[in-house]
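Researcher: I'm preparing a figure for a lab meeting and need a structural model of a single chain. I don't have an experimental structure, so a prediction will have to do for now. The sequence is pasted below. Please return the structure as tokens so I can convert it later.
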Amino acid sequence: MPEPDRKADLMRRNIIRTCVTAAVAAVVAIVGATGLGTAAAAPAPAPAVTVVGGCDGAKLVQPRTLSSIFCADVGVIVSDITWLAWTDAFAVGFGTENRKLCDPNCAAGKIAKYPVGIWLFAPKKGAFTQVSLYSSITGPPETYQLTGYVR
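Model: Understood. Here is the structure written out token by token.
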């Protein structure tokens, strides 16, 4: 890869990390300001137990790879994930989006890789059901229903 492309990729990753970190800080501040945080004398909270359902039914906590966005065709996978926060209400991190390019068709198309911010939310029955992918600081996120399940 030529040097300018490497520098541009590092800059994009740094921008996404900064945006995701700011989003986590904002959520933490809002939760603290609304009194939902724990008091100083309160016992330590129980560890988060909300999971992501894998395509095979596995219960995943802070997985390095998120493949349950489209289990049927594996059209979008997020790999090399670093989680900044994982709670029972949401999880946020960043990684590398691997998206199938269906040109000339999905079977023969290449895979594009982009830095991406990740937001898991809408837990139901102990598992996150939605994911938003933030690949640009100027555009809206892409939000998907997670297609994995929990046994």
